[in-house]
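Supplementary Note 3. Input sequence used for the single-chain structure prediction.
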Amino acid sequence: MRLLPAIHHDNGCPTLARSVRKGGNHGSPIRGLLVLASLLAAITLTTACRIDMHVQPRENPLSQSDFFADGRSARLPVEGTVARGQMHADAYFYTGKIGPNPGDLMPLPVTKEILDRGRERYNIFCAPCHSRVGDGNGFVPSRGFVRKPPSYHIERLRKAPVGYFFDVITNGFGIMPEYASQIPPDDRWSIVAYVRALQLSQNATMDDVPTGQPVPSQPPKFREPGSGATLPVVAPEKPEAKPELKEEAK
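The predicted structure, written as discrete structure tokens, is reproduced below.
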């Protein structure tokens, strides 16, 4: 039992001390329960602070292990199994080669969507060195890079099969690194299709012009001019009015 401090006045009547009168009843049972609950919570949290999640029974990649007979911690995949996403049944789609030689066949239809995707990926990964028209005068060589890439428009590369370009993107060539880890196979083929379009754009003849296409063609109209960081946005073409509608308008 806690005794509260008291002061006896001359009249003999006890009076509580000022600190007790101002601060309330310090002997309240509710306050004692709150203090006890706080202590129990602190003890519980302290006992839960363990490092089992940090010190796990695991092996670092390619580390030695005494558990297996061959001493290796990394295990070979189970025979006959294929990891998810690595079922490369179509060898040509993933290599661009037919046997040891590059093929000259696109494994997917070349549509406008494929060319648009190829242009986007090309401008991101290839244009810094090869330039946006493929002549090899990209930003990197113009700043003093020691090895300028060849132009796509030289005769050797214009006659090269499409599988050759796919293989170079996949595995690299000379000081050019491989891009297989950054560009998936379908995007690599989209880039190859766009490279062929670039080659045609710089080496086309009158025989390549579609019937009814004016030469030179009308320049596109832009909805947004673009900036140094974004490409211009071409405005959609308005359909021509039908003859009978033109006569009614008159």
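The longest helix spans residues 29-48. Strands lie at 6-8, 14-16, 97-98, 101-102, 222-224, 233-234.
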